[in-house]
Amino acid sequence: MSQRYFNRELSWLKFNNRVLQEAADTNVPLIERLRFLGIFSNNLDEFFRVRYATIQRILRAGKNATKSLGGVTAADLLEKITAEVIKDQAKSFEILNQLEEELKNENIILVDETEILPEHEDFIRSYFNNYVSPALATIMVSEESDFPTLRDGLGYLAVRMVMKDDTLPVRYALLEIPKSLNRFIELPSIEGDKKQYIILLDDLIRDRMHYIFNIFDYSHLEAHMIKVTLDAELDIDIDLKKSLIEKISRSVRDRKDGDPVRFVYDKSIHDETLDFIMSKVEIDDTDSIIPGGRYHNRRDYLKFPSLGRTDLLYNKEIPLPIKGVSMRGSLLEKISQRDILQYAPYHTFSNTIKFLREAALDPKVLNIKITIYRLAEVSQIAASLINAAKNGKEVTVSIELQARFDEQANINYAELMQEEGVKLIFGVPGLKVHCKACVINREEDGKIVRYGFISTGNFNEATAGVYTDYTLFTANKKILKEVDKVFDFFEVNYKLYRYKHLLVSPHSLRNNIEKRVRREIAFAKAGKKAHLRMKLNSFSDFKMIELFYEASNAGVQVDLIIRGICCLIPGVEGMSENIKVISIVDKYLEHPRVYQFYNDGDVEVYISSADMMGRNLDNRVEIACPIYDESVKNEILDTLDICWNDNVKAREICSQQLNSYVSLDGEPLRSQFATYDYYKNQL
């Protein structure tokens, strides 16, 4: 096999195909399957806004980037992506049709404008007049008029009116489907009828089009949905007189004027309407043009109503307390006695909030330093930090203003914290701050004692309920002294900082991982057991892949759990026969990064927010934290074992990229459910 890497973008599409598998899986509750369809669609939108747009920029700039694109030209890659997306989109429409049939079997009926019952007509008329009409933008368009700028990701109904007077030209209009309204409208129950009826907002608008366009004397009226996706790359102003907040705020505002990268349309649209719109939107042959079904923006299925049908949803598992850690009393006192591991969402995220709330109130706490990448819309983390500043603590926050698609939210919080006296650091020039860490200094008996936590995920209450992430709470002096050094680097980044315990990018993360992989290679060549195991979101760094191939050829057993992109090709004789890769997509989004090195029996374990990607290893500030506490280390290894032995939701990543489920040997083991039981049994 001559190919040494999977292409990154095509590998990502294979990941999104695994999400689509969840929508098709009849063992997943029905409404959850609809929501997986929404995740699939939302993922695809972001993919086009970022990755497809980047490749398009490479093509338009005339760059030869075949090496970075995995041996394919930008033009060929754009074609392959579009072909793969069209195939997955067709599959998603099949799944949606199947799901609608299954909903009918559950007495949940989706009606369109041709199926509205007489009992619902008054409600629909009233709903349209009171809620939809005030929010609905109706734009008449013609060959002569300027065409409006289509907003990224919004759905539009392209309207075609054929006039009764056939000497008059066909008229066109655009109806912008209001984003502020729920896409799924529950219709009133009908007495004696057990069915629950839902109409999509677009179909409700279709039903009222005769009212919208009643000033025109037309013979025929039709509407088909279209959507554009725009390039979401931020172009940062280089004006030195502007602050970083000003520059990024301006870039976020300008994003709405980005170039189109994808155009999706209802394939039953009239040819004349399609030609007219495409000529006005200025779609070119490098854009992805996707013929689709009647409904777009299926990401809205993420918010498909539950309808009180708990039987069609996953059971809501109550997050567990950490063994021996109560919400009462001092968390800092418990951390002073031992390291504590929080594994959300199996454990409650409240421990993170409690840590900061306690630090905000404790008179002995002098200062708090924390990195922030993404915050919840209503953030108790931010509130605790502001509270600490009001209590006279010195609070330092390194906030990443360029967290993709959360830029404006982070700007808003940055300005709020700044007003309340929080000291803000806006990262390091040229480097995103992606690490997740906090350290506090507390005065105890005339000495400064540090407490802190390092996490694999964001300090975000909203995502903590659906993302799996480890957080280590520790008072380990060696670790926290070096976390403090990382904050020093944020402020004085021309100095070279050395770390003995943490692996920190861009300084030492890559080199130290390479060193540990080479150590396993040496053990294998010496005839000893050699084993590497990593759990990652993505693996795309070619240099690191080549090192893992070298390890495989030396006899090192390499086991990888990779949720998303995997450019490494496993199981190829003479290249990677000792490498096995699985991917788990299930109820929760697998998010932690863990590195495990066998080290001749003296096992080393690190947790991190860094994937094996060039951007994480070289162009971001990342931390990989060693796990020194044996109890915590064993806990992480136990949960890794559970994950590795999943034979229900694990897919094998193979050279053919088939996304086949791991063969079911022995008793079924669904790792996310088994992990919850593991922690429940500890109590």
UniProtKB/TrEMBL annotation:
It holds the Pfam family PP_kinase_C_1. One of its GO terms (cellular component) is polyphosphate kinase complex. Its cofactor is Mg(2+). Mg(2+) binds at R374, R404. Residues 331-494, 502-671 form the Polyphosphate kinase C-terminal domain. An intermediate of this reaction is the autophosphorylated ppk in which a phosphate is covalently linked to a histidine residue through a N-P bond. Residues 86-116 form a coiled coil. The active site is at H434 (phosphohistidine intermediate). One of its GO terms (molecular function) is polyphosphate kinase activity. The keyword Nucleotide-binding applies. Residues 120-304 form the Polyphosphate kinase middle domain. InterPro entries: PP_kinase, PP_kinase_C_1, PP_kinase_middle, PP_kinase_middle_dom_sf, PPK_C_dom2, PPK_N_dom, PPK_N_dom_sf. Keywords: ATP-binding, Coiled coil, Kinase, Magnesium, Metal-binding, Nucleotide-binding, Phosphoprotein, Transferase. Residues 5-110 form the Polyphosphate kinase N-terminal domain. The keyword Transferase applies. Its EC number is 2.7.4.1. ATP binds at N43, Y467, R563, H591. It is an enzyme of class 2 (transferase). NCBIfam families: poly_P_kin, PRK05443.1-1. Belongs to the polyphosphate kinase 1 (PPK1) family. Catalyzes the reversible transfer of the terminal phosphate of ATP to form a long-chain polyphosphate (polyP). This is Polyphosphate kinase. It comes from Nonlabens arenilitoris. The lineage of its organism: Bacteria, Pseudomonadati, Bacteroidota, Flavobacteriia, Flavobacteriales. The gene is ppk.
